[in-house]
Amino acid sequence: MNKGVFRQYLAAFIASLSVLMAGTSYGWINPLLVRLLSPASDLPMTPDQSSWVVALIELGDLFSPLPAALLVDAWGRKPLLLSTAPMYIISWILVLTTRSVPVLYFVRILQGFGMGIVYTVLPMYLAEISQPKIRGAISTFFEGMWCLGILLEYCLGPFLSYQGLSWASLAVPVAFLATFLLMPESPYFLVMVDRPAEASRSLTWLRGEESTMDEMEEIEVTVKKEMKIETRSWKELFSTPADRRAFLIVQVATITKFMSGIGAVLSYSSETFSESTRSFLSPDQFTMLMGLLIIVSTLVASLTVDHMGRRPLLLISSLGCAVFEMLAALYYYLDGSGVDTSPYSWVAFASVASYCVIFSLGVGPLVPVLQAELFPSNTRGLASGITTITDTVTSLICMKLYEVIASGPGLYLNYLIYALFSLAGLIVMYLIVPETKGRSFAQIQSDLAATYNESRDLSDKVRSKDSNYTQF
């Protein structure tokens, strides 16, 4: 690994501490719920209050993406990511110094607000600092660190007190703030705001070599072409067929990701598996094992995405999700119909665990990659904000419907719905998702435009030497 590649991975890892702190805040409450509902807890609360503590983080996440989308091209990627660290530090200080349910409500909203900013900005930063040959691998840091943050809370929660787990969680935003201050801003943003000298220094540091003139020229040509309209608006997201196609691809991929049920499957895994597998593992062990499988699978995805490509992994992953969720639906249907499934109770865990593995090899980590790659510079921020809202809304719908359906028609129907969404996503993505492996932002935009014979080619200099493009 040369110096430039190492520096890109280092900057990406440190930037991804932001999504690690979001993941720790998201997962923090789950291992504490049983204790908080106890009369002898540090902060006694009712079941209704605990449900609000769990859910309010999503409310904050819903309201911050649009402000972040509007500010990211004015303030920059780095300052906006840094602004989330004080939010989390303040929130953990409040947790440590107060014992009030209303204060905890505020803490969860504040953490959700920071989470929405991270979800909007971090994929852009990771993609913009990376060379095309490693952009896929670096962009998967987002999903991997998010899952690692949740897993850390599940692993530490059973062994630490309320105070101890909060102190451990506080360490993450402090570490992020201290280290990310030393990292460079995105060279694409610096060119966008007409700071070419700073952009050149940032790019030189990231590439680890003195001569970055060719890449710098390519960035300037790309940004100049894409920023030709000085006043940017929401209409620019849909101004051309290529823009509309990019938007459709990312929204379909996002809906497929979250309506495949990953949030509900993980949130209710302890309850579901403890019943269906006759408790050969404890509920906490089930959850930790699922988290570990997801992290290992995401690591495998990061090692293969720049070799196999985005498209094959997305399609294989979507098909696998549909197959394993159909299997889980069949098991739970038979189990709920009075059939003796006790000799096959392992099928429930095996099918859902296999779903989590195949999900994390493609659909899970690659949606943020598409989010950052497919949009041009003038709409990347706005599109990221809308995509974050899409994932929050679909995740909320999926989570809320899970318990309603499970207590009504039956658990099998949840998995059947998830399988159908995965199958529908597979068909649509097969028809519209292009391959972006190893291609610069300029080449990706040229490819999208070429589908409709548009004149968005960004110059012969940055045009791909090979004109291979899969037609759909």
UniProtKB/TrEMBL annotation:
<dbReference type="GO" id="GO:0022857">
    <property type="term" value="F:transmembrane transporter activity"/>
</dbReference>
<feature type="domain" description="Major facilitator superfamily (MFS) profile">
    <location>
        <begin position="11"/>
        <end position="437"/>
    </location>
</feature>
<dbReference type="InterPro" id="IPR005829">
    <property type="entry name" value="Sugar_transporter_CS"/>
</dbReference>
<dbReference type="InterPro" id="IPR050549">
    <property type="entry name" value="MFS_Trehalose_Transporter"/>
</dbReference>
<dbReference type="GO" id="GO:0005886">
    <property type="term" value="C:plasma membrane"/>
</dbReference>
<feature type="transmembrane region" description="Helical">
    <location>
        <begin position="312"/>
        <end position="334"/>
    </location>
</feature>
<feature type="transmembrane region" description="Helical">
    <location>
        <begin position="134"/>
        <end position="152"/>
    </location>
</feature>
<feature type="transmembrane region" description="Helical">
    <location>
        <begin position="79"/>
        <end position="97"/>
    </location>
</feature>
<dbReference type="InterPro" id="IPR036259">
    <property type="entry name" value="MFS_trans_sf"/>
</dbReference>
<feature type="transmembrane region" description="Helical">
    <location>
        <begin position="164"/>
        <end position="183"/>
    </location>
</feature>
<dbReference type="Pfam" id="PF00083">
    <property type="entry name" value="Sugar_tr"/>
</dbReference>
<comment type="similarity">
    <text>Belongs to the major facilitator superfamily. Sugar transporter (TC 2.A.1.1) family.</text>
</comment>
<feature type="transmembrane region" description="Helical">
    <location>
        <begin position="51"/>
        <end position="72"/>
    </location>
</feature>
<keyword id="KW-0812">Transmembrane</keyword>
<dbReference type="InterPro" id="IPR003663">
    <property type="entry name" value="Sugar/inositol_transpt"/>
</dbReference>
<keyword id="KW-0813">Transport</keyword>
<dbReference type="InterPro" id="IPR005828">
    <property type="entry name" value="MFS_sugar_transport-like"/>
</dbReference>
<keyword id="KW-1003">Cell membrane</keyword>
<protein>
    <recommendedName>
        <fullName>Major facilitator superfamily (MFS) profile domain-containing protein</fullName>
    </recommendedName>
</protein>
<feature type="transmembrane region" description="Helical">
    <location>
        <begin position="346"/>
        <end position="370"/>
    </location>
</feature>
<keyword id="KW-0472">Membrane</keyword>
<feature type="transmembrane region" description="Helical">
    <location>
        <begin position="246"/>
        <end position="266"/>
    </location>
</feature>
<feature type="transmembrane region" description="Helical">
    <location>
        <begin position="286"/>
        <end position="305"/>
    </location>
</feature>
<keyword id="KW-1133">Transmembrane helix</keyword>
<feature type="transmembrane region" description="Helical">
    <location>
        <begin position="103"/>
        <end position="122"/>
    </location>
</feature>
<dbReference type="InterPro" id="IPR020846">
    <property type="entry name" value="MFS_dom"/>
</dbReference>
<keyword id="KW-0762">Sugar transport</keyword>
<feature type="transmembrane region" description="Helical">
    <location>
        <begin position="414"/>
        <end position="433"/>
    </location>
</feature>
